[in-house]
Amino acid sequence: MTGKQTLAYKGGVAADVFKALADATRRAILDELQDRDGQSLFEICTRLTMRHGLGSTRQAVSQHLDVLEQAGLVVVRREGRYKFHHLDTGPLREITSRWPLPDEGQSP
Amino acid sequence: MIRITVTSVFVDDQSKALDFYTDVLGFVLKNDIPLGGDDRWLTVVSPASPDGVELLLEPSGHPAVGPYKAALVEDGIPATSFGVDDINAEFERLSARGVRFVQPPTDMGPVIVATLDDTCGNLIQIAQMTAAS
Q1: CA torsion through residues B40, B45, B50, B54, sign
Q2: Contact call for residues B45 and B55 (beta carbons, < 8 A)
Q3: Which pTM value belongs to this model?
Q4: What is the pLDDT of residues A40-63, one digit of tens each?
Q5: Do the domain assignments include residue B42?
């Protein structure tokens, strides 16, 4: 990765990730995709209502998914007539490479 | 007194739908009455209640039906929902018959649901109420 790309990433992509994570409904969506990857919009809406008591409208959930997709945390896959949402935790790795965790076994 | 006697799903092909809804899902034929053209008044019932609610396998000929069904399927929205006693057993049985599930049995608290493709342009939900409800 060149220095220029690193700078672009720090200003752009990472900011999208932080914004995407700064919302309880979007974090719940990621939790549910962690539970079962590859869900339809309907399944995500049902899980938010039944498991989290979140009465978000389908339109609101769809907008949350757009934000997560923009941040690279959700990938949309079309399969025939279906549309599935998948979790990609890859962008989170960039957080710990920017602010590394202590080494294993090392005192904090 | 008003009662629900017929409900319906739009199916791409009535003959194919009759095979799927009877041979695969397990409903039984109730009425098959010719209408205009190739269309039929085609209904099935549950073997558990032969005089109960009829499911009309309705032709999809109207131009609004195609876009309506496509939009529902894209977002994973079932056209209707059927009750089952043992959803895991149904999931195993139907999967073995080659039925495509877009959602395996999922515990939603008062109900366990799964969603399958009826091969006639619809997603169908099956649901088992849990003991707690």
Answers
A1: negative
A2: yes
A3: 0.87
A4: 999 999 999 999 999 899 999 999
A5: yes
* Euclidean distance between the first and the last CA atom of chain B, given in angstroms as a whole number: 28
- How far is residue B6's CA from residue B33's CA, in Å, rounded to a whole number? 15
Q: Which amino acid is at B60?
A: S
Mutate to test the interface with B, among A32, A40, A59, A66 (most CBs of B within 10 A): A40
List all residues of chain A from 43 to 72 with a beta carbon under 8 Å from chain B. Answer: 43, 46-47, 50-51, 58
Domain that holds residue A28: 3-96
**Sign of torsion, CA B4 B105 B128 B29?**
positive
- % of chain B at pLDDT higher than 70: 98
CATH number at residue A21: 1.10.10.10
Q: Which two tokens stand for residue B75?
A: 């977002």
- How far CA B77 is from CA of B4, B60, B102, B124, in Å, comes to 22, 18, 11, 8
> A103 in a domain, yes or no?
no
B11: left (phi over 0), alpha (psi -120 to 50) or beta: beta
Interface contact A81, partner B, CB < 8 A: yes
Distance CA A53, CA B51 (A): 38
